[in-house]
Every structure is written in C-alpha cells, then in structure tokens.
Automatic annotation (TrEMBL):
<feature type="transmembrane region" description="Helical">
    <location>
        <begin position="196"/>
        <end position="220"/>
    </location>
</feature>
<keyword id="KW-0812">Transmembrane</keyword>
<keyword id="KW-1133">Transmembrane helix</keyword>
<feature type="transmembrane region" description="Helical">
    <location>
        <begin position="156"/>
        <end position="175"/>
    </location>
</feature>
<feature type="transmembrane region" description="Helical">
    <location>
        <begin position="21"/>
        <end position="42"/>
    </location>
</feature>
<keyword id="KW-0472">Membrane</keyword>
<protein>
    <submittedName>
        <fullName>Uncharacterized protein</fullName>
    </submittedName>
</protein>
C-alpha cells in the first residue's frame, strides 16, 4: 500500500512538472505577440501617421500611379454604399477622371456624408498611397477608417495584456516545476489564475478605451494598466481569504 501511494505521488509530481514545462513554453507565444505590438505594429502606425501629416498636395498633372506619396483630391462616383447595423458603413467608389481607379473603404460612422450618398452620386475624395482618406460633399467632410490616426492606446493595451499574460504563464509554469506538490496553495492556484486573466483583460480593455477617449499618450497606457493590474491582483488573491479573527474579549 505504501509503495502504491508513493508511486501515485511520484506520477502526480511528474505530471505537474510536465504541465509546468508546457506552460513555460506557452509563455513564449504572448511574449512574441508583445514584441510584434510594441516593436512592429505601433512604430509602423506612427511612421505612417507622420508621413501622412507631412505629405503635400499633388500637382495638377494626372497621376502616373495611384500609390503616390502626395495627397490628391479627386472627383468620384458612388458604385455601392452600404450602411451596417452598428452605425457604420462601407463605400465603393470610382474616380471620374482618367486614369480611373476604384476604391473600397469603410467608416466608423454614417454621418455627416456617407448616409446621404446614393449610387451614382458624385463627391470629392482625397487619396494617399492608394487608399481613400476622406470624402466630402458640399461643406461636409468625413474621414474613412483608412486615414492614419494618432490613436495607439488600444494596441498598447493589447500589447500590455499579452506581456502580463506571458509573465503569468511563466510564473505559473515555474511554480509547478519548483513546487509540484504545493503549487495549488499559492496565489497562482485555482481559481485565482482564471480570475487574474479575466480581470487583467478587462483592465487592459477599459484603460485603453478610456485613454483613447481622453487623449492620454499611448506610452502611459502600459504604466497605468500595470499599476491597476497589481491592485486588481491583490484584491483577487485576498478575495476568498477569511478575515483575521478579532482579539478575544477580556
């Protein structure tokens, strides 16, 4: 009987350590995602935004190619307009003057221009590097989703979440490797881990969204999320802990 119990404990310990090694390896996936966000995605968007703001207006000569670096104002005709359920929409339009080119783009809002366009209507568009940036009709002007924006807070929130997720997986894996028999009694034991992931995910989304609305610089987003995540983690760890008993009455 003693040998059987000892063998079961040994197999259980080996299985726990195996899962620990798997978690350590899995931690590399969100770490790579973090690198992509902060080293590739955000810098690329920043460069594109700066290039767009620095771009000059094109001359009056017809374009040799539509993927030019200058901003060109062209007359366009609506081929298709679709209003979606979430107060957004899509548009397909073709330039009036030769050489003709058809553009497909989308909008985050129906107003002030898209809602009032119908098939065959003419409007004024601005194009840059092969994408339709804005549309205008009369005195109203509306930007498309292709226009570069100085809004990197949500990507920064996503990158911070993947970084924290990687750290959590790594810590959980190392804990299983180092303490296979007692890891469930740590602050990373169930159900704390699941609550931590969900809580941190909510914090990242909410902070990123609020920072977009308020214009907080994107590089502050990771700092704010980390600080709030530490506080949320502390509350999560102490969620099920019973309060210390009071002193006995004298």
């Amino acid at each position: 009987m003693t040998r059987t119990v000892s063998g079961e404990k040994t197999r259980g310990t080996a299985g726990t350590r195996t899962w620990g090694a798997v978690l350590v390896l899995l931690a590399a996936l969100p770490a790579v995602a973090t690198y992509v966000v902060f080293a590739l995605w955000i810098p690329s968007d920043i460069d594109r935004y700066d290039d767009y703001k620095a771009a000059r207006a094109c001359g009056t000569a017809p374009p040799v190619e539509w993927s030019e670096d200058c901003v060109r104002t062209v007359r366009m005709t609506v081929d298709r307009r679709e209003l979606t359920r979430r107060q957004s929409g899509e548009l397909t339009a073709t330039t009036v003057d030769a050489p003709s080119r058809t553009y497909e783009t989308s909008f985050g809002s129906r107003t002030p221009v898209l809602k009032y366009l119908d098939k065959g209507d003419e409007f004024t568009g601005t194009v840059w590097r092969g994408d339709l940036m804005t549309i205008a009709k009369g005195d109203d002007r509306q930007v498309t989703t292709d226009e570069p924006r100085n809004e990197y807070q949500m990507p920064a929130g996503l990158g911070t979440f993947t970084a924290l997720l990687s750290a959590l997986l790594l810590a959980h894996g190392v804990l299983r490797l180092a303490r296979p028999r007692t890891h469930t009694r740590s602050f990373l034991g169930p159900p704390n881990t699941k609550r931590l992931v969900i809580s941190v995910g909510i914090v990242c989304f909410v902070v990123g969204l609020i920072c977009v609305w308020t214009g907080v610089p994107w590089w502050l987003v990771p700092l704010l999320i980390t600080a709030l995540s530490v506080a949320v983690g502390h509350l999560n760890v102490n969620w099920d802990r019973e309060p210390a008993p009071g002193l006995p009455a004298e």
